[in-house]
Design a protein that fits this description.
Order of helices and strands: EEHEHHEHHHHHHEHEHHHHH
Number of domains: 2
Number of strands: 6
CATH class of the largest domain: Alpha Beta
CATH topology of the largest domain: Rossmann fold
Number of helices: 15
Structural class: mainly alpha
Radius of gyration: 22 Å
Strand order of the largest sheet: 1-6-5
Bound molecules: iron/sulfur cluster
């Protein structure tokens, strides 16, 4: 493991190995949109065939900035699991579990909180950025829980003895903080915990239909996996196009058009080539271009939506899957807890 610490490993470069655990998580604060899909969930579906894959539904973490709205977190928990199952996450290959039902994570968080200083948490670049983004919620005084979420994330990772953690560049300081906690723990209490290795994903960050770098519900620019045909149509028809095109025969600039951007995600290579050349030559109308995109998006989302409808009609099945995954994950966390308590002389 050690030789990897200073290198950035790409997910794509990992050799499949079912004996290695890869752990990731998602906060249940809303339905999955296509930014989540292309940015993360698509690669999870591939990973479940190559590694022992754990996906945490991070409801406790979601409460750190939604503590005043527990209903939102509760309402979205099963919805997120439905999205994951509809996308192809297979409970026979992948462990999907609920963070709040594994108290060992909270227990580890308490022990780890002695191993990190407040100033170190305040200096964590990811935390700094997120606190700045949540000024509306926190004002000038951030909560202890939110400031400390990297500590609880270290507990999430180590509780399940994860080897690899998929992360975007902006998440790397959190993994580094986890490694620091692990090293400190091991140096004080003896070699007990595994240092996780971050694996960088090449998955793109998907822009919103309005061209905004970020896609999100509050921005009103997201396409959801659960959107029906009419919703997709309405959203794509309102997407940002090349503003310099007034008439159909105006020569266009597809690179500034979000419809072209989405064609690159949902259309075939030949279709993408045609869109570019016809737009640049002024032989393609924006309305027809959007209609083609709507059909292509719908063709991709329809089977996902159909599968999701099945789970919407069978919520007990979804709950059973989540509970079975949680029971399995809890057994793993209990093993870690036993080692940790022994190392800390708390094994009464
Ligand atoms: Fe965009 Fe298509 Fe219109 Fe060109 S023709 S500006 S790619 S919508």
């Amino acid at each position: 493991m050690e030789e990897f610490q200073d290198e950035k490993i790409k997910i794509e470069d990992l050799k499949p190995d079912k004996s290695k655990r890869i752990l990731t998580g998602i906060r249940p604060t809303g339905h999955l949109h296509i930014g989540h899909y292309f940015g993360a969930a698509k690669s999870w579906v591939e990973l479940q065939d190559k590694f022992d894959t754990f996906i945490e539904i991070a409801d406790v973490q979601a409460l750190t900035d939604n503590f005043n709205n527990p209903q939102k977190v509760k309402d979205n928990t099963l919805q997120i699991v439905m999205d994951l199952l509809a996308l192809g996450i297979d409970p026979n290959k992948c462990t999907v579990y609920l963070q709040s039902m594994i108290p060992e994570i909270a227990e580890l968080t308490v022990y780890y909180s002695n191993l990190v200083t407040i100033s170190r948490l305040q200096r964590n670049p990811t935390v700094k950025t997120e606190i700045a983004q949540k000024r509306e919620l926190f004002g000038d005084s951030v909560t202890y829980g939110f400031l400390g979420y990297p500590v609880s994330q270290a507990a999430d990772i180590t509780a399940f003895d994860a080897t690899y953690i998929p992360a975007g560049e902006d998440q790397l300081p959190l993994i580094e903080q986890c490694r620091e906690i692990v090293r400190k723990f091991n140096s004080i209490y003896g070699e007990t915990l595994r240092e996780p290795v971050e694996v960088i994903s090449n998955s793109p960050r998907i822009k919103g239909l309005d061209g905004n770098e970020k896609m999100g519900k509050s921005l009103g620019n997201a396409l959801y996996l659960s959107d029906d045909y009419d919703t997709i149509k309405r959203k794509v028809m309102g997407a940002l196009t090349d503003p310099s095109r007034i008439k159909k025969d105006d020569k266009g600039h597809p690179d500034v058009c979000m419809v072209y951007y989405y064609h690159k995600l949902f259309s075939t290579i030949n279709e993408i080539k045609d869109v570019r050349s016809e737009c640049e030559n002024g032989t393609r109308g924006c309305v027809d271009c959007k209609k083609q995109l709507i059909e292509n998006i719908n063709a991709k989302l329809e089977p996902i939506r159909d599968k999701r409808h099945y789970y919407e009609e069978h919520p007990d099945e979804v709950k059973d899957i989540l509970m079975a995954g949680t029971a399995k994950a809890k057994r793993e966390a209990e093993k870690t807890m036993e080692k940790v308590k022994k190392a800390m002389m708390l094994d009464y």
